Amino acid sequence: MNFHIQINTNNIFSQRSGGICFTGLQKILLLLFFLLNLTFLTYAQRPGQSIRKMNKMMDELYYDKSDTSRLSNQQKGILPIPIIVTEPALGGFGGGVALGYLHSNKRSYRKDTPATVTGIFGGMTMNKSWLYGVAHSGTFLNDHIRYTGGVIDSRVNIAFYREFLSVTIPLKVRMDMWGTAHKLLFRLGETNLFLGPRYIFSKTVSHPDISTSNPGLDSLINSITGSSKLGLMGVVFSFKNVKNTFSPDRGFDVGLYLDYNATFFGGDENFLKSEAYAKYYFQPVPKLYGAIRFEGEFIESNAPFYAIPYIDLRGVPAMRYQGDNVILTETQWRWAFYKDLSVLGFVGTAKAMNDFSNFNDAEWIYNYGGGIRYTLKKLFGIRLGVDTAWSNEDFAWYISVGTSF
User: Fold this and answer.
1) pLDDT average, residue stretch 26-43
2) Least buried of 11, 157, 197, 213, by fewest C-beta within 10 Å?
3) How far apart are CA 338 and CA 94, in angstroms?
4) What CA–CA distance (Å, rounded) separates 261 from 298?
5) Strand ranges (DSSP E) for 188-287?
6) Residue 205, exposed/middle/buried by CB under 10 A (0-12, 13-18, 19+)?
7) Is 168 or 348 the better-scoring residue by pLDDT?
8) Going from the N-terminus, what domains does the chain have, and what CATH number goes with each?
9) Mean pLDDT of the region 260-264
């Protein structure tokens, strides 16, 4: 049984909402930082503000009216944040702390301006994985320009799965990685369309935790051993028009990423990487909310093993199914049956393959499950709850804050 936390990441380091993303393993490394954006927007308090004024402001932030700009415009301050990490791939349990500063956005009159956040963070898990770093997300020129950037250093102990003699075996690896990522998006006119460049650099040293005299295994071990660098320069296209960023119910969220890793940009190899996603949230009848998403991630075969795409579905362990080409779809349905309480169910399927010519031979990976939610109306309509999920070979349960879809 697995247990871990799903957090809505909003606009900081989130691949699905137009933010910066690292590839493969690096997505997992940013789990600790994901908590910063949500918590700062929700709890950061203006120094000296009275409890009465704070409560009055929070009473006005109901689900149908909430937007992050009202809080980010009115509040600023420093806040320590405890972090719990329960990702099975990182040992099942861990913790850390983040210290962030929420800046005021008084210069922007646009109602949906994201908060400006600067933070430092760090943590460790039970399998001796650790991470620390610093990051910043801000807007300029009345939210016509958005910047997100950060630097992290980490050690991650994780298993990668490879086939040997027709059997899939886990290969435990210690990854020492540091990296930096920066993204600059420009709003197209007064629309919700954003376009801009991003740059990602990371250096990783891999140490497999296995020894053998079998020549076949030696070849596999050598493929995940040594030092490598990524230097990705890319273009980001993002369109997001949803009601309630934290827990969407209606609207579209679409993104496209085109990246080129090259020695000229600091990488060891030259290869292309692309990713596209589309989400649609809708309400067919009162109290019933549906959502559907499609995703595809593609990379050339000379990429390092940790940058290879993997299937990202609830109930499926991270890095369990990798391939140069990954496609997936998932749908979720939520029924608001009583006041702020709701139940939901979801089902999805995906394939990971090294070549589309192997599509018919690639295994269909599936997930299904359900959960319960409670809507925190006074905190931007954020939904808090628990999910249980099954897949081909695994079961997991999750604490969900915000959207897990």
Assistant:
1) 44
2) 213
3) 35
4) 13
5) 193-208, 226-242, 251-261, 271-285
6) middle
7) 348
8) 2-401 (2.40.160.50)
9) 96
